[in-house]
Amino acid sequence: MQDFIGIEKTVHGRLWNAVHGGYFSDPAIARPLVETAAGVLTRSPADVVVDLGGGTGFLLSQLASHGITAGMAMVNVDGSDAQLALTERKDISHLCVSLADFRRGAVAAGNERCFFLMRSVFHYVGEDGLSPLLRHLRDQAEEGEFFVHQTASFDSEQDAACLNALYRRMHTHKWYATVSEMKGRLAESGWRVVATAAAPALPLTSEELIRRYGLDVGEIRRVRDAVAAEFGERDNVFALTPSGFEAKLHYRIYTCVAQAS
Q1: 3-class DSSP state of 79
Q2: CA 248: distance to chain centroid?
Q3: pLDDT tens string 31-40
Q4: Is the model's pLDDT at 5 over the cut of 60?
Q5: Nearest-10 Cα torsion for 234, 236, 239, 245
Q6: Rounded to an integer, what distance in angstroms lies between the CA atom of residue 82 and that of residue 5?
Q7: Nearest Cα to 30, choosing from 75, 64, 79?
Q8: How many other CB atoms are found less than 10 A from the CB of residue 19?
Q9: Angle at CA of residue 226, ends 225 and 231, nearest 5°
Q10: Smaller CB count within 10 Å for the chain: N or C?
């Protein structure tokens, strides 16, 4: 996963909070995920709250500011030192490691219960990397522990295929599942999905993607034309603009519990 993230380090650090219109630093946008996590933690408190791929620690800060994590340790796990350096709260500890190398013992003692949180990470590992990572994360959880994640996924197979074609043509390894496929992959990996909920879509403009992925205007137009020729414009997913395109990345919140091995 580190290789997939490498190209994106140009937006890590201080630039991150402004990426995609501030999507990842907006409390209102994060509210559905925060409220879902808060509901689980209220019903089933944990000793350690672990944000996997937590970046700047924003989600943990949101939970803490609402008093949800009182008496719980908070650990922000991320592979980017630049992201972890922006964690403002002193009560959030850091662990700089890739998720493939993450081990439960690094954040919790043997008798401590964990709650796992994640937002917008799984698409980084690609289609072939998703199931191995899901199984690895399940191996780090004890039976009955919860994992709440907000993951880019689509109801429609064609919508998912459209965004996958778009990102493939931008030379990234990112891959987006349908909701049905994500549920299936989770179940196969030992995670029982107990609830799902919609989360705000992420608006994408070709101008910002040019900066994020190191493309040029000519290349992004070729990407636009190729995707439009294959899929056409898709309502609330992909639309043409005079110089490029606008797209929307759809998200779903999955509340999962670790099943017996």
Answers
A1: coil
A2: 15
A3: 999 999 999 9
A4: no
A5: -130
A6: 13
A7: 64
A8: 17
A9: 100
A10: C
